[in-house]
């Protein structure tokens, strides 16, 4: 453990001239996480580290660092470990990285089944790319039916309804991520997000989809932050999560306040009630 700590500190020192303090803190803990991964005393990233990366001015270097830790091919599981879609602040970079994840999800298995990347490409509003992948999906039993369905115009209410019917059918079969993809095909972002939150149990995926599909100022993302994230922060007493959510909501005053006081109520209606913490 001591040798690992020495390596982590040495790594940060080598990057000292190119990254700021917040970036250095994130890099230190993320490298510790990578070195201890799978061990008994595994180091898990917390919302504290995500906040450091979120407030760093060296995010391009951090993205490159996280990618190299994943051997240059980040799948969604790797992205979730690093929290990258929570801390990237530039929405164009968020979309670019999300497209990389979509491509890697498609190529990670030998059978090249487009089902695994459908949610990612539809979140990016790139149905045409997904159609191209299905054309090459020779041997996948759902190829013909899916190609026929995707060829339709989903701006038409008739086909939106058809997409949503498919989404509910997939939910009943417990194919949750694919169901979320069909909700997006029917332009029901909130439906897709609810599946990610309550069936897939992946908060980061829900937030990433919101950011990619509607941007950082969209109503669905705001609803997730207000009705899911802030109550969770209150219930768990996680001031770092609360601070991040308030900052995403544009409430910088509350974001700062959350770090220096304790949340005392788990209810959404009283989420802004704080009392001083004597431990600070």
Uncertain regions: pLDDT < 50 for 5+ in a row? 264-280
Instruction: Give the N-to-C terminal Cα separation.
Output: 29 Å
What best-fitting shape do the alpha-carbon axes yield? globular
Write down the secondary-structure element order: HHHHHHHHHHHHHHHHHEE
Strand order of the largest sheet: 1-2
Mean pLDDT: 88
Helix-residue proportion: 55-70%
Helical run tally: 17
Backbone CA Rg: 20 Å
Biggest sheet overview: 2 strands, antiparallel
What's the total count of β strands? 2
Strand fraction: under 5%
Helix/strand-derived category reads mainly alpha
How would you describe this structure to a colleague?
The protein is mainly α and 280 residues long. 67% of the residues lie in helices and 2% in strands. The chain has a two-stranded antiparallel ribbon with strand order 1-2. The relative contact order is 0.07. Mean pLDDT is 88; it is low at 264-280.
Features:
disordered C terminus; 17 helices; two-stranded antiparallel ribbon; 280 residues; mainly alpha; globular
Secondary structure topology:
Layout: H1 2-14, H2 21-36, H3 47-54, H4 59-69, H5 76-82, H6 84-87, H7 91-107, H8 115-123, H9 127-135, H10 143-150, H11 157-172, H12 176-185, H13 189-198, H14 203-214, H15 219-236, H16 239-248, H17 252-260, E1 261-263, E2 274-276
Antiparallel strand pairs: 1-2
Helix pairs in contact: 1-2, 2-3, 2-4, 3-16, 7-8, 8-12, 9-10, 11-12, 12-13, 13-14, 14-15, 15-16, 16-17
